[in-house]
Amino acid sequence: MSMYVQALIDGLLVGGVYATIAVGLSLAFGVMRIINWAHGELLMTGMYISYFIFTATGLDPYLIMLLTAVMMFFVGFFLQKGIISNILERETELEPISVLLFTSGLGLFLSNLALMIFGANPLTANTAYTGKSLQIASIYVSVPKLISFTIAIVCTLALYFFLQRSEMGRAIRATAQNRSVATLMGINMKHIYNVAFGIGIALVGLSGALLLPYLPVVPTVGATFSFKSFVIVVLGGQGSVPGALLGGLLVGIIEKLGTQLVSDSVAQMAVFIVFILVLLFKPYGLLGKKDI
Amino acid sequence: MNVKKAALCAGIVLATALIPLFVTNNLAMQYIINMLIFAYFATAWNIIGGYAGQLALGNGVYVGIGAYVSTILFAYEGITPWIGMLAGGVIAALLALIIGSITFRLSGSYFALATVAMLHIIRLTFLSNNYMFGYHTKGALGISLPWRGNSIINMQFEEKAGYFYIILALLVAAGAFSYRIKTSKMGYYLQAINTNPEAASSLGVNVMGMKLKASMISAFMTAVGGSFYVQFLNVLDPSRILGYDMSVQILLFAIIGGKGTLWGPIIASLIMTPLQDVLRGIVGASISGLAQAIYGLVLMLFIYFLPAGLWPAIIKLYNKIVAKIRARAPANAGE
Amino acid sequence: MEGGKLLLQVDAVTKQFGGLTAVNDVSVDVNQGEIVGLIGANGAGKTTLFNMIAGVFPPTEGKIVFQDTEIQKLPCQKISRLGIGRTYQIVKPFSNLTVLENTMVGALQHYPKIAGARQKALDILDFIGLSHRKDVVGASLGLPELKRMELARALATEPKLLLLDEVMAGLNPSDGAKVIEYIQKIKESGVTIIIIEHVMKAIMTLSDKIYVLNQGRLIAQGSPDEVSNDPEVIKSYLGEKRYVKN
């Protein structure tokens, strides 16, 4: 019995970080209708950057996360501003497939670049938190997972309040709801797109540092997280921050509990099957159509 | 197709058929066969991805189906891969019907995601089960094809030339069939669906039916290719055959070459497939990932600068040059 | 002039979208060979009615009968094949295809061989005065030609009933006058037409009878004279005089 509780807790802890990773993708899809197929590879980039800052300076990963967040914000901002916006402009469809194709090329490029430079061997960061765990009753809680989870939740909540209360946040939500009206209100849509995308990638960069204490860094980590993020976006509903949180936790739980109950492969399959079912029956996500 | 074009195509095919007479290096033949295989896959994908405009990112699943069906029948029932190929094709087409009925209700990006989810579901099923339908498929270990002797009926050859002629024939058949579709009622309807499905529907086009038809044709062709591919490799490695990378590779060149065109996928595959093999030859296996990184870069450059693809750009250039020559000719001839 | 036998009967049709009733208990009779006009303010439910006849979505209540067959539950492509064609308020061209190819997509319905479809398409383009533009790609056309191409495309399916949704919107008076000529030509060729239009002069000239919708309900019907003198119509249109002025 306690194994299942253990798996449940584990699932929640990793799920929280999944949510923070996925929320940027959700924002991009909700505001701009673009699917960033390289989302996972940008996470991979964030992880490698965190790893190297750590090995070079020995800085605490929870400080490194601030650096990677800022760096990746600018990466995202300029990716959107300089490249994606130009592709978007040419598209006449509501949902631009070209961006999907472009970013899949980007993902392919980034993951193989990492493979070439760093090789396929997993890199583990030996941080102060790595491998430590707390014992509560008969449950072992991994310390780095707990800290990362807490920070992830704080960030997600911060994003939520940012979108609800701040002027920029409200502008982003307005643009997501109705582009033409937002323009009439004088909102500089292009700037909004750049900021929204930048925020999403900043969170991805931050998450890279959050994962460092307990996940080995490999070039293929991108592929795993890309699809996981898509599933979370669909489960939670595009553009919904609370939805991304719910989706993240759900995916984490299905994974860990599923592996404990049956097997790793079956757990993964369960995630994909749930994905298809939600796409078919609840296309706006489990929470239904919501504004961000 | 006018006579001049048909003659040109026939000429190209005949010239290509002579290759084994001049190329004796086994490795070179392997590279060439690889080129033809991916040109074939790209042509098959083009029917659903190019003509029908549906971004099926998970079509690699049919490569796997074709591979497994024909391999199981060959290894465990002793049935010739020629029949195995057809069986694989039919099963793939049926699977496409089921998958399509589910996924075609979704729009653009969601459709693409759903096809990838389907791929992963099937891949995981094969990887995690040692027995499928009563046959010992050995999960992630895959199946090694038994050597039953050098013959056409076994589709196993000691010399590469045998494989070469089969894939060349398949490619020619695929190209001809693709051309037939493009210039028929189905081709026009698919283009209409691609551009504006609502308007197409108002003109009597059964949008869902057409998409399913295109998907089934594409799946059948892809599965046939999958069967051939494992015969050629002599081993079925599920992480390769049902892998996401394979699924991307069969469409990558169709997109770079120009989806929706006949020659685009073929030309791009012929140019880009050898890259992997050649690079490995030059820099050795130590720089793994270089070829894929280049593919990713090329895809990005094309989507950004030449979204219609390589072939339309070549045609445009050709027409420009011809127009310039014609503009000069009257001045020369007239005096 | 009253037409021949009853071709289309819209019978007490209602359409609700969630809490909004877009069309409320509307009945329309269309006889063979007539031109029936459908007028009303924006949001009156005219295009919604068209969409139901054309099979885009089914009515919440009521039936639609076309040539003795109930069609309200049929999908678009089946309705097209039964003989109902339509154009759209906001044009939907196949922008990558030429004018000829666009028209061929329609023609292929009854002429499944490419050569036959091409010939039919050429005939239609001739009829509608677009032959000189047959090889121009949709994306390069201006609005008046796009509207005419859409008309050609629908005609190529050899419809018995044609639904025209604001074919004249956005056109200047001289292009508009040409469209009126073409519509009359189409009527003479035996096609029955239902036309939604805001250009009053056109509707009054063309229609054999007119139905007036306001906020989803039918508020008047009759000959053009009867309808233009109807106090209800005058009342609800006083506010819409801006549109009448085109």
Topology, element by element:
The complex is a heterotrimer of chains A (292), B (335) and C (246).
Chain A: H1 2-32, H2 39-57, H3 61-90, H4 97-118, E1 133-136, E2 139-142, H5 143-165, H6 167-177, H7 179-184, H8 189-211, H9 221-236, H10 241-261, H11 264-281
Antiparallel strand pairs in A: 1-2
Helix pairs in contact in A: 1-5, 1-8, 1-9, 1-10, 2-3, 2-4, 2-8, 2-9, 3-8, 5-6, 5-8, 6-8, 9-10, 9-11, 10-11
Chain B: H1 3-17, H2 19-22, H3 26-51, H4 60-77, H5 81-103, H6 108-128, E1 131-132, E2 135-136, E3 143-144, H7 160-182, H8 185-195, H9 197-202, H10 207-233, E4 235-236, H11 238-241, H12 244-257, H13 263-283, H14 290-305, H15 310-334
Antiparallel strand pairs in B: 1-2, 3-4
Chain C: E1 6-17, E2 20-31, E3 35-40, H1 46-54, E4 61-66, E5 69-70, H2 76-82, E6 84-86, H3 99-107, H4 114-127, H5 143-155, E7 161-165, H6 173-188, E8 192-196, H7 200-206, E9 209-214, E10 217-222, H8 224-228, H9 231-238, H10 241-244
Parallel strand pairs in C: 3-8, 3-9, 6-7, 7-8
Antiparallel strand pairs in C: 1-2, 1-4, 4-5, 9-10
Explain this structure.
The complex is a heterotrimer of chains A (292), B (335) and C (246). The longest helix of chain A is centred in the N-terminal third of the chain and has 31 residues, at 2-32. Chain A is 75% helix and 3% strand. The N and C termini of chain A lie far apart (38 Å). Chain A contains 11 helices and 2 strands, in the order ααααββααααααα. Chain B is mostly helical. Chain B has a domain at 25-243. By secondary structure, chain C is an alpha/beta fold. In chain C, the strands form 2 sheets. In chain C, strands 6-7-8-3-9-10 form a 6-stranded mixed beta sheet, sandwiched between helices. Chain C has a 4-stranded antiparallel beta sheet with strand order 2-1-4-5, covered by helices on one side. Chains B and C meet through helix 8 and helix 9 of B and helix 2 and helix 3 of C.
